[in-house]
């Protein structure tokens, strides 16, 4: 249940049917001496009607789309989850401050209409600040009883079902990528301990962290899992991979995260509109009609081609302004030149900022459907 094929900024939230962007079911499977066990979790964008349109800023402001069927959308989403998985528990990892906090508060308010669904907010950035991954234990302590009640699947070598998972945890942050992956890996680790203890691979007092072989395989799987989902949705490797692999942030990890963040910014602003069109066309989400004109036909002013020119003027303006400022002591003419070039540069920057949405790559086939 997801909004067709998607790229990060051009598929956010839910559609009117309750299908959400980046909805992913993750099943962790383990086999031991004829026994097979699995633990399922799901993730998905906040199931409200909202958008986050790229506009050249690093973090475009998310905005909620006012619609009379908002509560119905949420109801349809969770009805589908209950039909598939049974009891559903929601873990919301978003911030409680700023624009993200507004979206989080709107989600929490909607969840009050569904008392049968447990909603848990966990401010990941605040509680785990500084890369303190171990603080997720605070979340687990709060939901441990419910997690154990939902259980996991266990089958013997004869195909007989010994245990069944009776519900699912639905985790989300804003992108349902980095914070979500760290949290899901933490819950998966706790479940794997229980599974292996029940299967006899570990004693009741042991955990996979005491086995280098199992622990390393587990961490590698979840790091690669996070990377694959991030590459599909955002076009870059996942952030916070160090928290899954090492339980802490490392310098190489910070550098890798920085490169991935820059890559996401570039792709979101200048590439994903075309990519979304390609996905919609190949998947059949957009149907070509002989009678309609090409959606790629340029009508009126097309601002995107002017971005390289504007960028060159800005870089050139900053360079000339810096040079003339360094020469101010020699003559008043250099001061006047500095003021002129600084004003020109500021004007171009303001113009680019004001037209940020038009300068970005936008999908033309299905828009924001």
From TrEMBL:
Spans through the membrane: 306-326, 332-352
Keyword line: Membrane, Transmembrane, Transmembrane helix
Cellular component GO terms held in the UniProt record: endoplasmic reticulum
Pfam families referenced in this protein's UniProt entry, alphabetically: Syja_N
GO MF, one example: phosphatidylinositol-4-phosphate phosphatase activity
One BP term from GO: phosphatidylinositol dephosphorylation
PANTHER family assigned: PHOSPHATIDYLINOSITIDE PHOSPHATASE SAC1, PHOSPHOINOSITIDE PHOSPHATASE SAC8
Protein name: SAC domain-containing protein
Organism: Triticum turgidum subsp. durum
């Amino acid at each position: 249940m997801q909004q067709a094929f998607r790229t990060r900024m051009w598929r956010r939230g839910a559609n009117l049917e309750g299908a959400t962007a980046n909805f992913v079911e993750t099943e962790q499977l383990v086999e031991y001496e004829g026994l097979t066990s699995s633990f399922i979790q799901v993730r998905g964008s906040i199931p409200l009607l909202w958008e986050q349109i790229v506009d050249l800023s690093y973090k475009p402001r998310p905005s909620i789309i006012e619609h009379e069927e908002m509560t119905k959308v949420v109801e349809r989403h969770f009805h589908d989850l209950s039909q598939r998985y049974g009891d559903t528990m929601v873990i919301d990892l978003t911030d409680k401050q700023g624009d993200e906090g507004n979206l989080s508060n709107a989600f929490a308010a909607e969840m009050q209409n569904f008392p049968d669904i447990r909603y848990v907010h966990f401010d990941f950035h605040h509680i785990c600040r500084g890369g303190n991954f171990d603080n997720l234990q605070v979340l687990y302590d709060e939901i441990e009883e419910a997690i154990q009640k939902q259980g996991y699947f266990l089958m013997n070598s004869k195909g007989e079902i010994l245990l069944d998972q009776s519900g699912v945890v639905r985790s989300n942050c804003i992108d349902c990528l980095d914070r979500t992956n760290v949290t899901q890996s933490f819950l998966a680790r706790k479940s794997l301990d229980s599974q292996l203890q029940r299967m006899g691979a570990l004693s009741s007092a042991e955990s996979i962290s005491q086995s280098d072989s199992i622990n390393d395989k587990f961490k590698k799987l979840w790091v690669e899992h996070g990377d694959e989902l991030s590459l599909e949705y955002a076009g870059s490797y996942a952030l916070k991979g160090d928290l899954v692999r090492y339980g802490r942030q490392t310098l190489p990890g910070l550098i890798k995260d920085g490169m991935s963040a820059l890559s996401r910014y570039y792709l979101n602003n200048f590439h994903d509109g075309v990519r979304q069109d390609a996905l919609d066309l190949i998947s059949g989400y957009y149907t070509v009609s002989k009678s309609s004109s090409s959606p790629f036909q340029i009508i009126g002013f097309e601002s995107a081609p002017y971005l390289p020119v504007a960028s060159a003027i800005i870089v050139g303006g900053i360079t000339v302004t810096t040079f003339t400022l360094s020469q101010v002591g020699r003559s008043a003419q250099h001061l006047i030149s500095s003021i002129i070039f600084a004003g020109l540069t500021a004007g171009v920057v303001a113009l680019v900022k004001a037209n940020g949405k038009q300068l970005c790559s936008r999908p033309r086939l299905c828009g924001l459907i």
